Amino acid sequence: MDVLLGAQWGDEGKGKVVDVLAPDYDIIARFQGGPNAGHTLIFDGRKFVLHTIPSGVFREGTINLVGNGVVIDPVTLVKEIHGLEAAGVDVRRNLLISRRAHLILPTHRALDAASEAEKGSGRIGSTLKGIGPTYMDKTGRNGLRVGDLELPDRMDRFRALTSKHQRLLALNDRPGASEEAAEEWLGAVEVLRSLQLVDSEHYLDQALRNGKRVLAEGAQGTLLDIDFGTYPFVTSSNTISAGACTGLGIAPNRIGRVVGIFKAYCTRVGSGPFPTELHDDTGERIRQVGHEFGSTTGRARRCGWLDLPALHYAVMINGVTELAMMKADVLSDMSDLRICTGYKVNGQVTDRMPYDITGTIEPVLEAIEGWGPLRTDDPLPPGLERYIAMIEAHVGVPVKLVSLGPDRDQTMYRSGVLVN
Ligand code: GDP
Ligand code: IMO
Ligand code: MG
User: Fold this and answer.
1) Please, which contacts does 158-161 make with residues 24 or more away whose CB atoms are closer than 8 Å?
2) For 120-177, what is each residue's pLDDT tens digit?
3) 28, 75, 177, 394: which could form a disulfide with 54 (CB 3.0–4.6 Å)?
């Protein structure tokens, strides 16, 4: 099994690269996160944004598996399925859902909103999809799982957890979830029950034994990881390669390649530290040219220079074997580019990610030359090749794919192919 994941703060372009690589795999499997994710795919003049369904869905014959580590909101999932079906995509035939995946209830969304309101100015900037409360119920051993929907007492279980949440919300004078939301959820559950529910750990074990090729698709990014991200401004799952093992039930020694996706610059949506953030016209220019607005929430993404210490950290934590660089085209017409090669913490320069990057950390920036326009048919311009060489030298792994635009076809391989 190979793993593909975000090496920054999410929205690196994972959806695009999974779609590009999917023909080389039999199964694409999401292993964590939920509808907080928004993975964009563009091909043949069409654009799709996926939230729960893996990004192999547009490739004929590819199996798309939603693993046990994912949290599923039946309402969003069913909307996504209907949207794809309306666009002529036969989703259900090749879609498998793990029975062990946990369910997001309407009250989880209400709890998410309550938690953010409680935090006030210290809020995470959550997508408010109910992700945190659902993972809390999972680790708190209260959660409802997809497999529970096959049990005769499923309604009782739903009502019991819902009323527990509603009591908690009422106690704190926070709005609960409406009865209409509960009805909508129950309606969506009937559709979910009709999908192919599997014991995905056994399914994947058998598939791997039969020589099938599996690509695990990450959501969010390394710096949003619950353990290794910029805590507490993170999401509630393990977004790193280890998360692919727990989120799919696949042993670590079955992982082959680990593909880290990064942008030629950095973005972050929501609150939290961002050492290379640009608060000036340059940041605004990157946002406009790169269309840096959230795929899930539409929020403006914060933009800044590429952060090599953070990228190096992501390579280390994930065991990244190769990198894919996205959106170099966005910086094409810009001069006065910078790259962050270290951090100044208390007057000391370090290229290590410190425990806490809030507050007094200052990025050490180096000027880099620009590279002008990029064309898929031409070799990469020397300025961009030098930029890539600098990145490779710093983080110690090759950049094997360069993306030159949002379309499936605007993709270039460097030094051989990305997959076996
Ligand atoms: P994901 O969450 O990692 O799948 O990334 P998103 O889909 O949230 O955000 C990436 C955005 O960049 C999407 O709008 C993509 O269409 C777009 N994109 C991906 N690769 C490129 C690229 O190389 N150049 C440009 N200009 N846009 C890209
Ligand atoms: P993809 O898969 C970028 C951010 C939110 C917030 C924090 C916690 O498209 O890369 P949550 O909803 O999980 O409680 O939010 O994480 N976040 C993402 N940022 N891309 C994502 O997913 C994200 N999913 C969550 O903005 O700061
Ligand atoms: Mg996204």
Assistant:
1) 158/105, 158/185, 158/186, 161/105, 161/107, 161/137
2) 999 999 999 999 999 999 999 999 999 999 999 999 999 999 999 999 999 999 999 9
3) 28
Which SS3 state, helix, strand or coil, does residue 286 take? helix
Amino acid making up residue 397: V
Query: Is any atom of ligand 1 closer than 6 Å to the C-beta of 41?
Result: no
pTM over 0.85: yes
The 8-class DSSP code of residue 192 comes to: H
- pLDDT, tens digit (0-9, with 9 covering 90-100), for 59-78: 999 999 999 999 999 999 99
pLDDT at 419 over 60: no
User: What angle in degrees, to the nearest 10, is found between the helix axes of 179-193 and 74-86?
Assistant: 60
Is the pLDDT confidence value at 417 over 90? no
Cβ pair 4, 314 in contact under 8 A? no
Q: What is the DSSP letter of 194?
A: T
Residue ranges around ligand 2 (CB below 6 Å):
6, 10-11, 33, 36-39, 124-127, 129, 131-132, 219-221, 224, 235, 269-270, 295
φ/ψ bin of 306: left (φ > 0), alpha (ψ from -120 to 50), beta (otherwise): beta
Q: Is the CB of 42 under 6 A from ligand 1?
A: yes
For the cut 60, the answer to whether the pLDDT of residue 420 exceeds it is no
* Distance in Å, CA 331 to ligand 3 centroid: 20
